[in-house]
Specification:
alpha/beta, four-stranded parallel β-sheet, binds aspartic acid
Length: about 300
Amino acid sequence: MGSLKGKDILHGNQFSRQEIDAIIRNAAFFEKELKTKDSLTLLRGKILATLFFEPSTRTRLSFETAMQRLGGGVVSMASAESSSAAKGESVADTARTVSQYADVIVIRHPRMGSAQEAADAAPVPVINAGDGAGQHPTQALLDIYTIRKELGSLKDLTVAMVGDLKNGRTVHALVELLSLFEAQLYFVSPDALRMPEEITSHLRQKGIEIVETEDLMKAASESDLLYMTRIQKERFPELSEYERVKGSYVINGEFLNRLKKKMTILHPLPRVDEISPEVDTYPGAAYFRQVRNGVYVRMVLLAMVLGKR
Ligand code: ASP
């Protein structure tokens, strides 16, 4: 172990099976520890900086919770408007500056490639918490931990990913991890929001079986897991284009009745209208358990890049 010590976390494709196994093992350990203790002391004296140039509820608060549960401290910048980015400072200069204060940086930014720029500039580990429509690797890792817990295994899975596969950074990262476990994938989206060609062709080259379809019921009836996503309104150049595809797929009670089989449902959240609130009490609706798992997985990632795990 310790292979992530001093490293940046930027992309779903950077992990090996062994690293994922270690992350799952350690997350389960922290989950157990927090059942009997409010906080640990592993990262006492260390400081995390969270730099969020785009809105966030779960990612920022769960990273900050994770650091505090490990006994570390947090400094935070919650919006671009409140920082020198508003005066025209570059991401690289901000990252260089913040690394004078903090031992690890978590960054979210609307531009693809920005986390890499921060990592290139900062001497401390940088964790990508979402770079535009690019990647969101820590979400993908907490998704994998959740799938492992909910389904008991990561082997022989058929997963249907549904919604905005073009702009959704969580699915871009998650397919990389699922490909290590040879999952079969259904990509369910309107034609305008299909998974980018470079991602599907790279997965197919790795031998991953992919079916692209607009038919949610067909994909769901052949899958173990539905991974729902929000149509990413903020990535559309024209509101009219968003209006045309919004509400394309909705999971509700009637859908689950027609499906006639047990189903696990994940969603990185926030949801808009793609999962009706009536689904929340369905036993397979795991998206709020998924939120909680984010804390354990982010505890592991902070501990690992700081060489304490
Ligand atoms: N919270 C996730 C993200 O930041 C998913 C979403 O916003 O739809 O990518």
